[in-house]
Amino acid sequence: MLNVSIVLYKHAPAEIALLVDTLRKSEVVSTIFLVDNSPSKQSEFNELDATYIFNNSNLGYGVANNIAIKQTVNKSIPYHLVLNPDIAFEPEILQEIENYMNNNAKVGLLMPKILYPTGEIQYLCKLIPTPFDLIFRRFLPESWTRKRRARFELRDTGYDHIMDVPYLSGCFMFLRTDAIRRVGMFDRQFFMYPEDIDLSRRIQRKFRTVYYPNVQVVHNHAQESYANTKLLFIHIVNMIKYFNKWGWIFDKERRQVNKEILQRQKC
Q1: Residue 267 pLDDT > 80
Q2: Domain parsing of the chain, residue ranges
Q3: Across 40-50, average pLDDT
Q4: pTM of the complete model
Q5: Does domain 2-266 have CATH number 3.90.1300.10?
């Protein structure tokens, strides 16, 4: 059994209705939380088969998800799925993921194969990032950083087998509730962007964080911060907070974990 949280910001009810309908077709889904950070309330969300929570302010992605995750923890629901509104999938995959998690108690976080609507793979299995990977790279020509980006995104793995990955995307985070109890929820200091890196890191200290390509979802990823100056500023500010927390140059854990992942990749 699992709960699901979907954070909204100016989303159309008709768009979210399709996702709620997909989730309701799965026998393993219990409560669906629609946590709305929009400036105004939309009563149409109350008509969906979900629990609608209007925050009356933009709390950020992680803090909004925490509202739902806290209820999952308090009610001892075994799993919680953090889901972007722009995700599509077949409902049967949730049962398969739950079965895998049930049979692999050391897995605290799982992400399936993520595809673009075109069918191309989204390379969202990543090493623990350095400041270059998250901040400086975006201001350089793509041709200068192509090789390093491929290494950072573990592209040589082929994305065709189950593997342990220290940084999994926040667009689809299948979480074991016991892992959240051990390491905590999303860090409130991050408004958006690095909250999934931070949570992945904390979980992988005590549990496995797994890429599971046996099932797949489609993510209509827009990379809005590349086109929106305001979002770019928010991105950079929150990345600075992330490196202030974990370390800019001197991050021994990052160095050790990434070394182990790359060595395992060569085997």
Answers
A1: no
A2: 2-266
A3: 95
A4: 0.94
A5: no
